Automatic annotation (TrEMBL):
Species name: Arenimonas soli
Residues in the signal sequence: none
Keywords: Membrane, Transmembrane, Transmembrane helix
Transmembrane segments annotated in the record for this chain: 68-87, 94-111, 117-134, 146-172, 184-203, 357-375, 384-404, 410-427
Descriptive protein name: Glycosyltransferase RgtA/B/C/D-like domain-containing protein
Length: 433
């Protein structure tokens, strides 16, 4: 019964999500990727691997609900594998699956067909493999973790920093020895992972459009407003753009309004030369040096929204988007409904402005795990807990300077990693670890 318990609990969790939230929620990003899957087009600005998975799913499962099924199946399988590897009695395993898998912010994110949720589920599966490797060391577990990390990085372009601590752990387990040896092995694994994830996202014939100008132009707009002068290179704005125009369109928690009027000439709709890209990049990179107060003030404000320090001022759509956005010729789909949905979704919505959805809580939990494991050093279990906590921190910290908006979904892995790290630290199987 102990072996079956986490899998039965995960099956119940899977059934709950499907019954309450079928066929899932589609924000604009999700609807755009569904459109690509239907038409066979690829946009490198969004992970092509997600489109290819969606295309494969469409052959055998209802669309778009089939994608929801595969997404939540990956999550609950990771939770069951994690609880099984942690061990303990049947009820402890069940509570681990439900406590982590249905933690309110994670349960609320699960129905959204987002690359962030896929990355979270795949990284959680990798951690489950590494915990299993502690209990019964096998190269197969480590190879499985590597494969899941590659897949997770393919789904989320900025996932590599979060993978680095886990890769270092795999290197240490596979090639124990000097720090130099482990460091070189980690670097080699990181390069291999990056290349493999990039290969999975190749989109031959598609326009390869850099995504960094979205962030750069939002930052430049914020600093231009603070300095009361337009700092953009002339080729990137419409003639006659004024600071008043920038101020009218600007939002401190999402970049989209700044581009709505079309007066900022976003590279998705214009062809730019390498020299023009370099000119924009030079202005962007000069902001911290030439206008530090305005630049870091802007980034501090974005981070305050992202980390849940301004929940009352932040619109709920930056946290959850429980709807199906119509886009182009995508078929009309009835949104989730039914008694179970009516019982769950309003309760999840009511929690959006509580500490459960505040990112800083999970950063603090990750730091607490790092400090506790560093002090007591109880064994490999504590080491893995610290590594998982570090992974959650490293997906979040770059966002303080690079987030294009304050969407809570960017912190999905931070939330999951902090909880998994705490579970590893609190409930190791001491006889095996």
């Amino acid at each position: 019964m102990r072996r079956a318990a986490p899998w039965l609990a995960a099956a119940a969790g899977l059934a709950l999500v499907l019954a309450a939230f079928w066929p899932g929620y589609l924000s604009w990003d999700s609807a755009w990727q569904w459109w690509q899957a239907r038409h066979g087009e690829l946009d490198p600005g969004h992970p092509p691997v997600m489109v290819r998975v969606w295309q494969a799913v469409r052959f055998v499962l209802p669309d778009p609900g089939g994608m929801l099924l595969v997404q939540v199946l990956a999550w609950w399988a990771a939770m069951a594998g994690f609880a099984h590897a942690l061990g303990g009695g049947a009820w402890r395993r069940v509570l681990c699956v439900w406590g982590l898998g249905a933690w309110p912010p994670l349960l609320a994110l699960l129905p959204h067909l987002w690359k962030d949720v896929w990355m979270m589920a795949l990284f959680a599966g990798a951690v489950a493999c590494l915990v299993a490797d502690l209990q019964a060391p096998r190269r197969g577990w480590r190879l499985g973790a590597l494969a899941l990390l590659v897949a997770g990085c393919a789904f989320r372009h900025n996932a590599l920093p979060a993978a680095l601590p886990l890769l270092a752990w795999v290197a240490w387990r596979e090639w124990p020895g000097s720090r130099l040896r482990v460091g070189l092995a980690t670097a080699a694994l990181a390069v291999g992972l990056h290349l493999a994830a990039g290969l999975a996202n190749l989109a031959p014939g598609a326009r390869d459009t850099p995504v960094w100008p979205v962030i750069a132009m939002w930052d430049i707009a914020a600093v231009s407003i603070a300095q009361d002068r337009v700092l953009f290179p002339p080729d990137w704005v419409e003639p006659g753009l004024t600071v008043q125009d920038l101020r009218r369109d600007f939002s401190p928690f999402v970049n989209v309004p700044s581009f709505a009027s079309g007066q900022l000439r976003l590279n998705f709709y214009y062809d730019y030369t390498p020299a023009q890209y370099a000119e924009l990049r030079n202005v962007w990179l000069s902001l911290p040096l030439d206008h530090p107060r305005a630049y870091f003030g802007h980034r501090a404000e974005v981070s305050a929204y992202l980390l849940g320090l301004r929940q009352a001022q932040q619109p709920d759509f930056q946290v959850l988007q429980p709807a199906i956005v119509p886009l182009r010729d995508n078929p009309a789909v009835a949104p989730p409904s039914g008694a179970l949905h009516r019982a769950l979704q309003p309760r999840l919505d009511a929690l959006v402005d509580t500490p459960l959805f505040a990112g800083w809580i999970y950063l603090a939990l990750s730091v607490a795990v790092l400090l506790a494991t560093a002090v007591r050093r109880r064994g490999p279990g504590d080491g893995l807990a610290a590594v998982v906590a570090g992974s959650g921190l490293l997906i979040a910290l770059p966002l303080l300077l690079l987030a294009p908006s304050a969407d809570f979904r960017y912190l999905a892995w931070t939330v999951a990693a902090s909880l998994m790290a705490a579970a590893i630290a609190a409930f190791p199987r001491r006889e095996s670890l």
